[in-house]
Amino acid sequence: MTVLATALDTADEAYAQRRTEMLAKLAEVEEAHGQALAGGGEKYLTRHRGRGKLPARERIELLLDPDTPFLELSPLAAWGSDYAVGAALVTGIGVVEGVECLITANDPTVRGGASNPWTLKKALRANEIAYANRLPVISLVESGGADLPSQKEIFIPGGALFKDLTRLSAAGIPTVAVVFGNSTAGGAYVPGMSDHVIMVKERAKVFLGGPPLVKMATGEESDDESLGGAEMHARVSGLADHLALDEPDALRQARRVVARLNRRKAHPDPAPAPPPKYDAEELLGIVPGDLKAPFDPGEVIARIVDGSDFDAFKPLYGTSLTCGWATLHGYPVGILANARGVLFSEESQKAAQFIQLANQRDIPLLFLHNTTGYMVGKEYEQGGIIKHGAMMINAVSNSKVPHLSVLMGASYGAGHYGMCGRAYDPRFLFSWPTAKSAVMGPQQLAGVLSIVARASAAAKGQPYDDEADAGLRAMVEQQIEAESLPLFLSGRLYDDGVIDPRDTRTVLGLCLSAVHAAPVEGARGGFGVFRM
User: Fold this and answer.
1) Domain CoA carboxyltransferase C-terminal spans what residues (predicted)?
2) pTM score > 0.90 for this model?
3) How far apart are the first and last CA of the chain?
């Protein structure tokens, strides 16, 4: 075995400082998670329970197999916006009757579960994950439909939700809707386009237009039950396949539907794997607060892979990028991890070859980010950094094996692309609280703007105001710093969640299990033209 050695000194003062800084950032993340867990607040939660209804997360808990994990996705959606953190929707992956499923649940304590623009983005991301990994979709529905004041941002793109449901079904991926309350207007098409539909008696209301709208449109008098009640849909319209007596019964019936799906994973689960040789707790003290300071990604790899066993690829070449093979919870992975931030020509070529090898072997790739981007300067431009960086990005773009990404530190510029950032469709992408991502670092970006402004003034023969320049630089640095932080990025769904570093192995294991529900097959050629 090639067990990684560690040089981490947990008694060192620098380690203690890094750990303290990480814990402070984690506290900020936990506070934001607390806002998502609070939903609409105590008043609306009490009212919801008073109506005999369960909160969204309790519904999910009853649906899942006992003592199995739930990987919540995009929990901080809408952070920093005018909408509630979490976007009135809970999404994630959990096990139901032994089957990994993608679960979505409206949170009716937040404006009646109405969908705002971030709800839509979060739901579309969930469907994307379900489709790529062939995970059955279970929708726990209770929503008043679109949040009307924001309809201009929801109506047109929102049609993709219904398109997704039909495409999932057409691809043989089961869809199940459990309706607990309102599912009105466009929301009525969620059960309408699902393969299996369960409705709760005297609670579910599914109609395109409620009694007031029907009265306005046609003059017809009607009531909720005759127009769209669960019993009517079970006995008359046929929209409901199953009529549940109450919420627990609805969730029991949903479990029985999943039990009868005849689902089999494309790849069987591997045997239990040995844990890393080193304590995951130590991951708190590896990444420095100052991301310009380097750290050894091998220390991270040694604390997440099975047995800390790692076979390096080209360890003496392109040493700013660590590449190699390992297993994680028994699943084979190829790992690319930034060692010293900057990517040079050698690292780019090394990565392209490694990615091709992973595709030849049908091995998923894990990208561990800490990069300031590709190297700049006359020597490097003349040495072909553009064509070599393009080679790496080409390989990432056309790779067919599943990609997982974790932003540990910096993820700037085209380095974010080459390391499979969000635009390159990783199956899953998570951030540590220490991560930052932007077109470049705040100081560099502010400095570039200052240089350009100074040159422009000189070209016009105008004096340059150094005091105003200092103020502009400070303002730009502050803005870019705020916009590069993980809470900001996660709020905009540029990742699938900000995770505790100590949970990295568990989160990646759950993701690898999910991606192996679908066939894992690499590209055989088809990488386009590599500039040599």
Assistant:
1) 275-522
2) yes
3) 36
